């Protein structure tokens, strides 16, 4: 007998799977999807995820073989954690708080993660900030039997450029594939809204969906405010538009809530905005689309346009989308620095997998395997879950990635533009001015807000606290803070990364 011990996710191709696995399609969604998992495991075992499209993390108990089978989807859109106790038991789940509250768990800080965090602004790799608590990495499954854990990798991103197609061919394939995916992302009886920025990804998703309402965030600071452009896009597409106006006080007030519900520190300033957006959107819908995935798959970041000039040097320094603090600076500010704990160590195996491929492909693969899982999908999952909102990401799909994996890099970026083929596909349903609009990113006025004494009181408190004394040279971090307040706005990321760690530590090791 196979039983589902824990499951979170959404299976897109459930109709086909119900037919193939003889599952009653009329069952309630969660019951139906759990039945699909059980029967897929019985039929395909460790290869079951090859047959499923969607986002998922789960654990199945095989009573006959007396073993636990745990699996996380190919991209890591849903988290999965595990911990072996001193007496050989395995604690596991999709939420860290579900594990640390169980008998046998010893809550200790894994301080080495702080060293990684100070560069990347998120916890990368299989380790977490809790000693002994591991992440099951994307594309892996875990078997626990007779007190032993085995990890198997069932999926690895593969890149095989196909030179036979034109730009228009690639755009057609992207568009037709997304068109076929969209009906799977929701059922006819579900009502969905869609997050909308000024960018092409969310605009394309909205245009391809039947969402009647779009949602965005805005600020009083005009140069950071994308909501005006988003509203124009929504009007052009004939959709209603809701704007959540965020104030600096609201932003700073919610930081402890974010770090608690994130369960690990995250120094991505946009996560706070995303949280506020999720909470506001959850007031009028329970399901919302979002556009994650296209940037990493199709060359969306401006830095990718520099890939060729980096050449073979990439493997010596490129650790993903963020790398804000170098080793010399970390040595100066951290009280406990281990020269063997380096972010670049996380990428060695990834670079081996892309040996012989072009620099852009290598950069994309690092971001797909490290940044997406460690930052983007973590943020989406944790903060939507906290709000009671289900987010579905149509562009995060193996069928979309399959196109990107075969696409030569010249159709992803050129000297003038990023996401070239993707934007060409989007232009089939969007005006060119939107499809080819310059990427702004999810920008936040934090760099000016945090320098304001009206809003940075908690930053100053924690930078002078006993918590800070445990981990940092307090004079050194306050020198960074003072330099930032004095006008060096480039230091805001360093200040924010230190601050968010201190808030998280206070939430998990002081207050609780």
Automatic annotation (TrEMBL):
It holds the Pfam family Asn_synthase. It is an enzyme of class 6 (ligase). The keyword Metal-binding does not apply. It catalyses: L-aspartate + L-glutamine + ATP + H2O = L-asparagine + L-glutamate + AMP + diphosphate + H(+). Its EC number is 6.3.5.4. Belongs to the asparagine synthetase family. This is asparagine synthase (glutamine-hydrolyzing). It comes from Hominisplanchenecus faecis. The gene is asnB.
């Amino acid at each position: 007998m196979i039983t589902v011990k824990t499951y979170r996710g959404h299976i897109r191709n459930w109709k086909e799977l119900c037919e193939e696995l003889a599952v009653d399609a009329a069952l309630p969604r969660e019951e139906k999807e759990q039945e699909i998992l059980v029967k897929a495991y019985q039929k395909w075992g460790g290869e079951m995820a090859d047959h499923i499209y969607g986002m998922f993390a789960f654990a199945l108990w095989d009573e006959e073989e007396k073993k636990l089978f745990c699996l996380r989807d190919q991209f890591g859109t849903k988290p999965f954690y595990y911990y072996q106790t001193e007496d050989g038991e395995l604690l596991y789940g999709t939420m860290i708080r579900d594990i640390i509250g169980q008998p046998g768990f010893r809550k200790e800080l894994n301080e080495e993660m702080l060293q990684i965090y100070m560069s990347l602004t998120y916890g990368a790799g299989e380790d977490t900030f809790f000693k002994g608590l591991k992440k099951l990495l994307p594309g892996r499954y875990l078997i626990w039997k007779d007190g032993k854990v085995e990890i198997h990798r069932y999926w690895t991103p593969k890149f095989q450029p196909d030179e036979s197609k034109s730009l228009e061919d690639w755009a057609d394939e992207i568009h037709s594939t997304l068109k076929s995916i969209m009906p799977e992302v929701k059922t006819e009886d579900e009502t969905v809204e869609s997050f909308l920025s000024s960018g092409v990804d969310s605009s394309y998703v909205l245009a391809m969906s039947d969402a009647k309402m779009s949602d965005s965030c805005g600020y009083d600071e005009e140069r950071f405010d994308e909501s005006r452009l988003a509203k124009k896009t929504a009007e052009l597409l004939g959709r209603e538009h809701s704007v959540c106006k965020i104030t600096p006080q609201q932003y700073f007030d919610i930081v402890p809530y974010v770090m608690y519900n994130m369960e690990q520190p995250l120094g991505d300033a946009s996560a706070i905005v995303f949280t506020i957006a999720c909470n506001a959107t959850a007031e009028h819908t329970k399901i919302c689309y979002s556009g994650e995935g296209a940037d990493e798959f199709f060359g969306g970041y401006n830095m990718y346009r520099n890939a060729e000039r980096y050449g073979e040097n990439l493997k010596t320094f490129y650790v993903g989308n963020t790398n804000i603090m170098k080793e010399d600076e970390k040595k100066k500010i951290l009280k406990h620095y281990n020269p063997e704990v380096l972010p670049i160590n996380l990428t060695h195996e990834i670079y081996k997998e892309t040996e012989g491929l072009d620099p852009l492909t290598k950069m994309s693969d690092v971001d797909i395997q490290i940044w997406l899982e460690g930052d983007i999908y973590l943020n989406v999952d944790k903060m939507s879950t906290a709000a009671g909102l289900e987010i579905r990401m149509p562009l995060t799909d193996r069928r979309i990635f399959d196109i990107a994996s075969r696409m030569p890099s010249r159709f992803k970026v050129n000297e003038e533009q990023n996401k070239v083929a993707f934007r060409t596909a989007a232009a089939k349903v969007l005006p060119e001015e939107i499809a080819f609009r310059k990427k702004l990113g999810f920008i936040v006025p934090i760099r000016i807000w945090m320098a304001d004494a009206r809003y940075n009181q908690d930053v100053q408190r924690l930078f002078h606290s006993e918590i800070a004394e445990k981990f940092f040279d307090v004079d050194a971090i306050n020198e960074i803070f003072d330099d930032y307040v004095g006008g060096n706005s480039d230091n805001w990321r360093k200040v924010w990364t230190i601050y968010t760690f201190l808030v998280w530590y206070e939430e998990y090791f002081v207050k609780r």
